[in-house]
Structure formats: C-alpha cells, structure tokens
Design a protein that fits this description.
Mean pLDDT: 93
CATH architecture: Alpha-Beta Complex
Order of helices and strands: HHEEHHHH
CATH topology: Sufe protein. Chain: A
Low-confidence stretches: none
Number of strands: 2
Strand order of the largest sheet: 1-2
Structural class: mainly alpha
Helix content: 40-55%
CATH class: Alpha Beta
Largest sheet: 2 strands, antiparallel
Number of domains: 1
Distance between the termini: 25 Å
C-alpha cells in the first residue's frame, strides 16, 4: 500500500465515529497495539524533543527502507505515534520526505489536541523526516 492508501484507511476508520470520545478510544487502542520498544532504545538519544510526555523513536535502515519503532508513556501520544509508524514505517527515505500527512487534519486530530500535544506531533514528524534525510544522505 502507498502512504496515501494507508492514510485513507486511517481516515475511514476514524470516520466510523462521530463522538470524539470514541475517536480517542480508537487512538488509545491503536497505541495499545503498538509493539513495546526494546529497552535498549529507551535512552535520551532516542527521546523526541518538544514532547510533553516521553516519546522514544528509533529508526533502522534496511534494504533501502526505514523501519520505525516507538513508544510513549502517555496513552494518547502512543496512539499518535502508532499512526505515524503505520503510515511511514517500511518506506524509502524519499517517500517519507515527500509525504503529505493529510490524515492528521482529515481525522480532526489537530483540532482535538492540546497545544503541547500538537507541538509533540510536529516534533515526531520532524524527527521521522530527519531520520529519512539522514539515511538518504548517508546512502546517496
């Protein structure tokens, strides 16, 4: 599936609910499905700067694709990072760098996050794109 196809699936899943409490529950459930991050990656160098809660993000580069793993100590944030991983993991650096993450606006996430969580979301996306740029330059 392409990045846009995955985003469209996420949008369709969130459109099943009208109430934002139900959408938050979907977000929490999505985060709970995220595989635990190996303890070796729960170190300061993997922490996302700008997040109110702690978010660790690790990226590995194999066969031209970036594999992302993450975890957070906050349930909503864990759901957000799980969505980002679902959309971005397994992609090439170019795909990640060129991605327009429209699903965030389309599911209404930006409108329903506190300012600190919105800043954290921006920081997570920036870190994923920084990893992509680093892997692209290293392997050019």
């Amino acid at each position: 599936m392409t990045i846009n196809e995955v985003q469209d699936d996420i949008i369709a899943e969130f459109e099943l609910f009208d109430d934002w409490m139900d959408k938050y529950q979907l977000l929490i459930d999505t985060g709970n499905d995220l595989a635990p991050l190996d303890e070796q990656y729960k170190k300061p160098q993997y922490l996302i700067e700008g997040c109110q809660s702690r978010v660790w993000l690790f990226a590995d580069y194999t066969d031209g694709r970036i594999q992302l793993e993450a975890e957070s100590d906050a349930v909503i944030v864990k759901g957000i990072v799980a969505l980002l991983i679902r959309v971005m993991s397994g992609r090439t650096p170019a795909e990640i760098l060129d991605a327009d993450l429209y699903f965030i606006d389309r599911i209404g996430l930006k409108d329903h996050l506190s300012p600190t969580r919105s800043n954290g979301l921006v920081s997570m996306i920036r870190q994923i794109k920084n990893y992509a740029l680093a892997f692209k330059l290293k392997n050019a």
